[in-house]
Amino acid sequence: MIALTDIHKHFGELHVLKGTSIIVPEGGVTALIGPSGSGKSTLLRCVNLLEMPQSGRVAIDDAVIDFVPGGKVPREAVLRLRRKTGMVFQNFQLFPHLSAVENVMEGLVTVLKWPRDKARGRALELLEKVGMTAKADAWPANLSGGQQQRVAIARALAPAPKVLLCDEPTSALDPQLAGEVVEVLAQLARDGTTMLMATHDLRLAATIASNVVFLDAGEIVEAGSARQVFSAPVDERTKRFISTLTAQVSLG
């Protein structure tokens, strides 16, 4: 479904991604884990080109873009690739002047030009999927953080993207509210939604990921099945990181 090949990304003199390559299989959940500054969120954002790589290849389904230093990518190619993705951000990013159902409808009406009745039907279907039907007409300010994130997930799913990208989807939530979001994402995983997420939430990654990629200093240190990486990591850096997170979860 997704193939990133030899991705390089610089921010000024800082070389954040150093020839990173990953494959995200269709129908699975791949978690990008690693310490702060490892490049996991940058790599995720390179998938839908919120961050533009300096070099490398990004492929989603049949949309492929090759990046070369100093080269320009046609806007049409960028939009074609972005249409394959839905994005869930760390801080929800709901429109405060729109109700929950209107937030989910907005992209369908404004971008895809759906009739409002059709868009509302799709929005209500997705709100039911994330357990938010009862709050369809509520304003974001009257929703908890977990409820806002569930609406944001519904909004990301509205145009039926090929892949759902999640950038630290539980990090702004306390443990109880994070649990609500984990359960929604777990259900999407059971339904076969292809997901790629950057997260430091070990519970989230262990609960729903089928594959895990551990990054450190812009390079992939270890990758494999979630069971293998979490229960029997090979690299010492992975072992230290997993043991630190496990200790934090135990203390919590």
Sketch the major β-sheet: 6 strands, mixed
The SSE string, one letter per element, is EEEHEEHEHHHEHEHEEHH
Rg result? 18 Å
In the CATH hierarchy, the third-tier topology of the largest domain is known as Rossmann fold
Considering DSSP H and I runs of 4 or more, what fraction of the residues is helical? 25-40%
CATH superfamily of the largest domain: P-loop containing nucleotide triphosphate hydrolases
State the total count of DSSP E strands.
Answer: 10
**Mind telling me which CATH architecture of the largest domain this is?**
3-Layer(aba) Sandwich
Low-confidence stretches: none
Describe the structure.
The protein folds into two domains: 2-84 and 162-251, Rossmann fold, CATH 3.40.50.300; 92-160, no CATH class. 39% of the residues lie in helices and 25% in strands. It contains nine helices and ten strands. Strands 6-7-8-3-9-10 form a six-stranded mixed sheet, sandwiched between helices. Strands 2-1-4-5 form a four-stranded antiparallel sheet, covered by helices on one side. The chain is globular and about 50 Å long.
